[in-house]
Design goal:
258 residues; Uracil-DNA Glycosylase, subunit E; 5-stranded mixed sheet; two-stranded antiparallel ribbon; 7 strands; 29% helix
Length: 258
């Protein structure tokens, strides 16, 4: 447990505390569970900024975004660029979006208070070392397009890791990796010459979430659901919303380590 994320810089934490209310849109989100804001480096040292849509159940447990199945796919994406730490990950929405509500929630992205808060956050966490931005999915694309002072670095718009079009996903990600390798400087302990994506998304394209991205004291297996993907029946995430209470209950299962 020696490596962990101590939390955001003070200035960023204060900004998180000012997140505008989602109360007027509560029926569109898993509102009662509260916001989840980030994963990675928020000290303006990130060479790559990635924006996704919203946090899921695993992210609520971790208190960090992009930790579940989608996050482990994104971590594999980062690994193919040789990035082990020099990235910042955030979402278009701070609250988890309920299924099939994306279109209804879209106006929230441009609501003045939400827009100003999100753009200030993006300004706070990016600095002169930024080399590229990746927007995963439609909500992220909208958020980036609404970012008034977006840095003049290459922008890559690719499908969200949970896309239901697997061929489009893997083809787009493969092309993005090829281009990004010529743009983004890998970390000293990273390797951007590992195999790119093949014709299908493979287990080897996943990567566990590093301990340095997670709070102190979480189980060592949090952020690595390889065991669930091998299980029968398969389950991609260790945390789920049960059908008996979708709004206010989470079920968290652990691997059988003994």
């Amino acid at each position: 447990m020696g490596d962990f994320d101590p939390g955001p810089p003070v200035m960023v934490a204060r900004h998180f505390a000012k997140v505008p209310s989602y109360a007027d849109f509560r029926e569109l989100f898993w509102y009662d569970w509260g916001p989840v804001f980030y994963r990675g480096r928020l000290n303006r040292k990130a060479r790559l900024l990635a924006i996704a849509s919203d946090p899921g159940p695993t992210e609520r447990i971790a208190g960090r975004t992009l930790v579940g199945d989608a996050g482990q796919r994104v971590q594999g994406f980062l690994g193919k660029l040789g990035l082990t730490r020099s990235y910042a990950l955030v979402n278009a929405y701070a609250y988890a979006l309920r299924p099939s509500r994306a279109q209804q929630a879209a106006p929230l992205l441009s609501r003045p208070d939400q827009l100003a808060w999100r753009n200030t956050l993006l300004d706070l966490i990016t600095g002169p070392e930024l080399q590229a931005i990746v927007a995963f999915g439609a909500q992220a694309r909208s958020a980036v397009q609404l970012w008034t002072d977006r840095p003049d670095v290459p922008l890559f718009e690719v499908p969200h890791p949970s896309s239901r079009s697997p061929k489009v996903l893997v083809d787009s990600w493969r092309n993005a990796i090829t281009e990004l390798r010529a743009i983004v400087t890998p970390d000293p302990d990273g390797d951007n010459t590992v195999p790119n994506y093949g014709v299908k998304f493979a287990e080897s394209d996943y990567a566990p979430i590093p301990a340095r991205d997670l709070p102190f004291g979480v189980p060592s297996w949090l952020g690595n659901d390889a065991w669930g993907r091998k299980d029968k029946p398969r389950h991609n995430n260790s945390v789920e919303r049960p059908g008996t209470d979708l709004l206010n209950t989470l079920v968290w299962r652990a691997p059988k380590l003994g």
